[in-house]
Design a protein that fits this description.
This protein is 49% helix and 14% strand. The protein contains 5 helices and 5 strands. The termini are far apart.
Length: 138
Amino acid sequence: MFRRWMIVLILAFLVFGTAGCREEDKKETKMEKAAEIITAEQAKEIMDQDENCIILDVREQSEYEEGHIEGALLIPYTEIENRAEKELSDKDQQILVYCRSGRRSAVAAESLSGMGYTNVKDFGGIMDWPYEVVTEGE
């Protein structure tokens, strides 16, 4: 009788004890995928040093036309999951993401990280960009 209770207790420990570990592993994996948040100044420094980085504007077309960072690629944040694989083929390339205020860039950067992009940095909104922007037609 004692032996049966010991076996039941050991099995219960194994089942419930490892369930918590699995949940922790999921949390760690999700955290590892999070995009890095940087300042506009840090983004500018990267742009100046890495000519192969992608500057990704995730606003709408009309906002982009009103003013964007020179060389920025426009993919509205609502289209990231449909267009990223095709337009951002190198998942290890450095991608600097921005929007108007920082909310959409955070969503887009998280989506990209979740899709396996390994070098995503979110520098928030163009509202905080102290450098020049270009408008369509320039």
